[in-house]
Amino acid sequence: MDIKIDIVSGFLGAGKTTLIKKLLDSDLRKEKLAILENEFGEVSIDGDLLNDTKVDIKEINSGCICCSLVGDFKEAMHEIIKQYSPERIIIEPSGVAKLSDIIKSCKSISKNNNIYINNIFTVIDVINYEAYINNFGEFYKDQIKNANTIILSKIENNDEEQIKKISRLIRNINKESSIITAPLDEMDGNDILTISKEDIKKSNEKTLSIKKSFKISAVNKVSHSHSADNIFNNWGVETQKSFSKSTLEKIFKIIVNDKSYGNILRGKGIVKLEEGIWGEFHYTPGKFKINKATKQRVGKIVIIGEGVDKNKLNLLFNING
After folding, report:
1. Each residue of 159-168: pLDDT tens digit?
2. Angle at CA 149, nearest 5°, toward 171 and 182?
């Protein structure tokens, strides 16, 4: 039986999990699906957010699928295939993973299996595009360049000219992929898949053309020095502490204004709220939101960035440990 692999890539907080939920509400639900989640850090959040989908989920924590975790990735893939026998595996890599490395890892598994890469999505945060491309060009450009289909997120409060500008900048990096500029919250999963199907067709035709036109006589080995752990670090905690919405908003205002906590690029969590409910919060530079969440066994908080000061964050969130 053939197994399709769909990759949903995107930098920290771009909206990968939101896209996956859209896809799970599409015609893909007619297939037997499994999800491979890769979190950067020891505390997993995204897997909890997808639990309500009733799809089989396998998680890899404490790094990104690329260099150090490639063995764990292969083992997880083989475990998913053996345990669940899926028709399709959706992979959500860490936001700081290089998409080219994910593709390479998938291809290394597909050699001896009936597995092939299908959709390759990259979600782009319009609000932070220019800041991220300037500061993290290696990761960001790689995720754009290797996508089949690119989806712009957080466009609701951006004017049409800004969206056109970002689209032009993306087009300079990837001249082939479709760029979807409709609001992700309003998109239908089947519409996204229809566009992606055409992108896959274009990609296959391009690959076939290259194979027909060129004969490769030699391949030079290239050294590979990338490691997200050398650039980003994280703070993660499990807690039974309750928070008010106003307290969480205040905490992230402090984080924005006081860089001694680190250059915080992503915050997310599921925690008990003092109002007697559970809340799911998300932070990226320039945006904080909190929504109602289903009850969890334990609250979880993850902060990712550069130079993250774990001790100061423990004190800020008033969490011992």
Report:
1. 889 999 999 9
2. 85
φ/ψ bin of 83: left (φ > 0), alpha (ψ from -120 to 50), beta (otherwise): alpha
Point out the least confidently predicted range of 43-47, 153-157, 292-296, 311-315.
43-47
Helix orientation angle between 137-145 and 160-173, rounded to the nearest 10 degrees: 80
The answer to whether residues 264 and 311 touch, using CB atoms and an 8 Å cutoff, is: no
Q: Is the same domain home to 182 and 244?
A: no
145 and 288 both lie in a single domain: no
The full DSSP string for 122-179 is EEEETTTHHHHHHHSHHHHHHHHHT-SEEEEES-TTS-HHHHHHHHHHHHHH-SSSEE
The range of the structural domain enclosing residue 245 comes to 232-316
Residue closest to 302 by CA, chosen among 239, 227, 244: 239
Please choose, from the candidates 114, 160, 121, the residue with its C-alpha nearest in 3D space to the C-alpha of residue 15: 121
Q: Which two tokens stand for residue 167?
A: 């689209």
Q: Residue 287's beta-bridge partner residues?
A: 284
Instruction: Please give the average per-residue pLDDT across 168-178, as a whole number.
Output: 95
Q: What token pair was written down for 108?
A: 């290394």
CB 234 within 8 A of CB 41: yes
The total number of structural domains in the chain stands at 2
For the stretch 40-76, pLDDT in tens is 655 555 555 566 656 777 776 555 444 444 567 778 8
Cβ atoms of residues 22 and 104 within 8 Å: no
Any domain includes 227: no
